[in-house]
Amino acid sequence: MELRAGYQDVPPGSAGPAGRSWWDANAAEYLDEHGTFLGDDDFCWCPEGLREADARLLGDVEGADVLEVGAGAAQCSRWLRAHGARAVATDISGGMLAARRDRPGTPPLVQADARALPFAAASFDAVFTAYGAIPFVPDARAVHAEAARVLRPGGRWVFSVTHPVRWAFPDDPSERGLTATSSYFDRTPYAERDESGRVTYVEYHRTLGDHVRDVVAAGLEILDVVEPEWPGGHDRTWGGWSPLRGRTLPGTAIFVTRAP
Ligand SMILES: C[S@@+](CC[C@H](N)C(=O)[O-])C[C@H]1O[C@@H](n2cnc3c(N)ncnc32)[C@H](O)[C@@H]1O
What we know:
By secondary structure, the protein is α/β, with parallel strands linked by helices. The chain contains seven helices and ten strands. The chain has a seven-stranded mixed beta sheet, with helices on both faces. It has a three-stranded antiparallel beta sheet with strand order 1-7-8. Helix 3 (75-82) links the parallel strand 2 and strand 3 (86-91). The radius of gyration is 18 Å and the shape is globular. The N and C termini lie far apart (49 Å). S-adenosylmethionine binds next to helix 1 and strand 5.
C-alpha cells in the first residue's frame, strides 16, 4: 500500500513533472497565503523575513546581470530591477511565472528547469533563488553546476533552503514541532501521491554537509552560510515556521557562494 503523503521513496524521474504540475496547480493558493508577506515587488529570502535590502547577499546589483531561478511570481526580480539590475526570472512552472506577469516592472520571464538553463556560459554577475528548485529535485548538483556555468568569474550564487536540522522535527509551528521525531540523517524524501498512486509533490532532504559537498562539486567557493534569527515583533506563522519555533530552532539556511 503506497502512502498518500509522507516520507517515502519515489521513482526516479517523477520529481520534474511533479514539481511543475504541483506548482502550476497551487500557484494561486501559494500566493493567496504568502503573497502579502512576500510583497509583489520586494525581495524576501525566507519566512524569517530577511530582506535583500538589509542583507545585501548578492552584493552591489546596480547595472548587474542577475538571474533568478525558481522565481515563482518574480517579486524578487521586480525589486532588483527597481534597484538598477538587469534581472531575468525563470521557473519550471508557467503558472507561478504568470501569476503576477502584468505587474509593472516585471522582468523577462523564462520557463526553465534550473537544471537546464537556456543561457550561454558566463552570462550573469549573480544567480539566486529564494527557496526555489533545490528542495524539489533529486539532483541538486545539476542546479549548482548550471549556476556555476552561467556565472561570470567572481559572480555569486546565493540560495535559501529550509535549514537542514528541521528535517528531524515535525513540520508543526506549535510545541510539537520542538521535539525531534526522526533522524536528521534520513534522506528519504517527503512525497505526496494522488488516488492513482502518481507522485504529485516531492521534497528532498539534504544535510548541511550534503549542501556543502554539492556546492563544492560545482567548483564554487562558500563565502557564508546565513542562519537568519527570528526577529522580535515578527509574529507571522508560515507553515511550520513560527515565532515559537524560531526562538529555538533555525528555520532557514542561506548559502552565499562565488564562482572562482
Ligand atoms: C517555495 S516556491 C518559491 C518561489 C519564489 N522564489 C518565492 O520566494 O516566492 C518554489 C518554486 O520553485 C519552483 N521549482 C520547483 N522545481 C523547479 C525546478 N526544477 N527548476 C526551476 N524551478 C523549480 C516552483 O515552481 C516554485 O515556483
